[in-house]
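## retry 2 of 3
previous attempt timed out at serialization; input unchanged, resubmitting
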Amino acid sequence: MAERPVPAPSGVRTGEFAAGERITLTDPKGRRHSVVLAVGGQFHTTKGAVAHDELIGGPEGVVLRSVGGTEYLALRPLLNEFTVTMPRGAAVIYPKDAAQILMGADIFPGARVIEAGAGSGALTCNLLRAVGASGRVISYERRDDFAEVARRNVESFFGASHPAWELRVGDLVETLGPEPVDRVVLDMLAPWECIDAIARVLVPGGVICCYLATTTQLARTVETLRVHGGFTEPEASESLVRAWHAEGLAVRPRHDMVGHTGFLVFARWMAPGHTAPARKRRPAPGAYGEDYTGPRAETRQSVGTGPTGADANIPDQDLPAR
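## retry succeeded, writing output
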């Protein structure tokens, strides 16, 4: 029987399939099935079973037939495949957003990164691969059950506990240590509650990234970063991925796509005693009107004490130079 490959900090395995490995079987329609190999085990389908023993000890990239004659391609899952098929507790950050986070937050080998919350561990796997064995990822998760799911998934992908990873169960604000960090990624319901705490440990020039599901979260987070004064102007974005069908002369977008999954907000931390230049872009009329109750509500100017007309109720720093 083939021995399980030695774990690598990258999570990449090569060589023969071994019992205990998670692999992907792809059918002729392109449907992927995640399977953990076991001696004597079988993968059952409507077209008959596939015996695990036919794969264990054999090479990757083989095609085998079920009892009913259906062909299946057997490969080890790539990281993007693993994160969408692994067991879940909390919802996962999808590969398209994880890729934007790694690039937008500039996660580099050796980086010291704080992640909160850990969820099911999908982003954790991406961060650990990016920082490598010389870096450090500290993941915070409030819920014990989610933390346990994340731990199992990370260990399943890397083959063992990653040397650069520390998982802390608890509230970020209450349990944040004093260690300086280079990057911070917040995936939580109210990231604005953690801004002051993060500012105490983020090094000058460091990056904060917030993953947000709704526009109300997006607005509150961006305004909180602006009001704080120690961060550069926040940049908000989302990404949409559309696959294409290409067969002969039939070249067109596919009917399905990965649309909105979340918003990303990025900002950088300033050196102590410095504030980013005031924004000069004029906000839309009414952006800070009477109905606005966000973090900048206390900075609104009262009608009659400042600019009038389109400029009324707009903070001074948002007005163009005169």
